Amino acid sequence: MKTCGSATPLGNSIIEMTSAAMNDFEAVWERAEDVFALGAHSLHGPDHWRRVEAHGLEIAARSGADLTVVRLFAALHDSMRWTEGGDLEHGHRAAELAAGLQGDVFQLDDKQLELLLEACRHHNLGRVSSHPTIGCCWDADRLDLPRVGIQPDPRFMSTAAGRSFAQNGEY
Fold first, then answer.
1. Nearest alpha-carbon partner for 67 in 1, 109, 143, 9
2. What architecture is the 14-125 domain classified under in CATH?
3. CB 118 within 8 A of CB 94
4. Is the pLDDT of residue 16 over 50?
């Protein structure tokens, strides 16, 4: 798997490219950084978000996940953390932030918004999902666990691609 500092949209359909064009991803990143309480060098901060985005784009290319939701998840999922340690409510706060940005900084249809909110709300609960987009989001986040000394476990990956990356140590 390739990782990079700044991922780019990989739209593989007209609908995804149109959706991506309608959303200002950099504005989302700026808003997330503005509200993030732990600072730019946090273990859960912007560097982590960019790695999650890169992992998510790799998994999405193999799983059919919604690229727009994956990119928004990457920027928002940990943006409302208040501590580096246990902060069980940060996913719910991230979902609230996402709902508040809808229609202002980005525009999703109802299905996409519900996927983004679900992915944010529950990303830190150790669940797996059979939905390709939610599973992609959660796997992308888990593939960056080595930053905190934890090796990703294929058993906790939702997608075949995530399991393969974890099994082969590609993170």
1. 9
2. Orthogonal Bundle (1.10)
3. no
4. no
